[in-house]
Amino acid sequence: MKTLLMIITVLFGMNSANAQERAVQLQQMIKLKLQNSLAREKNNTDQSGLREISRHKNGTFQLFDNYFSSLLKVNGNVRNSDKAQDIKTMNQAVRRTFEITIKNAVASGLYQHSEVEEMNRTYNKVLADCREILRNLDQVVITGQYKMTDGQRLQRIDQLYDRMVGVFRFTKTYCSDIEVLRFSRQRERTDIEQLRGLYGPTIKN
Fold first, then answer.
1. 110-121: per-residue pLDDT in tens?
2. pTM passes above 0.85
3. Where is the signal peptide (predicted)?
4. Distance CA 33, CA 35 (A)
5. How far from the centroid of its chain's Cα atoms is residue 115's Cα?
């Protein structure tokens, strides 16, 4: 009887030990699976986060790229603004006024050679100013030249307009003075010729 009890006790102890071992193994397996699951979840989260960061990064770069590209484009309202057109019109008027004035001065024979040379030098300086203004205007109104907002372009056109107005006013004043002098000399010549008709060739210019 005692022997049977001992055998039962030993077997029960072995079963109990095996049960505890299996329990420990089961706990280790659950722990390992949980760790693997957490690791996969973390990896997926990291990858998703990286994709999200990349998406926002690319989106931000695209926004900046679109913005700076838009600065190279010229709005039609800017390109065809009244002042931009007036600058070109005044440039043509300046050229025409100088050319007609110098042509009339030379044809009249009332100006010395040095005076005509001075007129041409002045005209060349004015032309240089006009070319610079038009070159700067083209840089503002032609797409792809400068990166500027519409407001900055219009402000620059205002500045160039003011410069061209100054050149145009100078041209009118300068050429008007030449014309006034030409008419004065022409009248003087006519008076002398009339006096010569009355009193003979003794009257000198």
1. 999 999 999 999
2. no
3. 1-19
4. 5
5. 44
